[in-house]
Amino acid sequence: MIHRGTHQIGGVATEVRTASTRIIIDMGSELSMEENYVPASLSVSGVTDTNGRCDAVLFTHNHGDHVGELMRIREGIPLYMGVLAREILLAVTKDTDAMLKKRIMQANRFTAGRPLVIGDMVITPYSVDHSACDSYMFLIEADGKRILHTGDFRMHGFRGQALPKMLDKLIGKVDVLITEGTMLSRDDDEPMTERALQQRARLYLKQYKYVFVYCATTNLERICALSKAVPRGKYFLCDTYQAKLLSLIEKHWGRYSPLYRNIKRTTYDDERMARFRKRGGMMMVRDNPMFRRIISAVDREHSIILYSMWDGYRTRDGSTIPAFLSLAGRWAPLHTSGHASVRALRTVIEKTNPKCIIPIHTDRPDGLCLVCPNKKVAVVQDKEVVEI
Ligand SMILES: [Zn+2]
Ligand SMILES: [Zn+2]
Question: For 325, phi and psi rounded to 5 degrees?
Answer without folding.
Answer: -65, -25
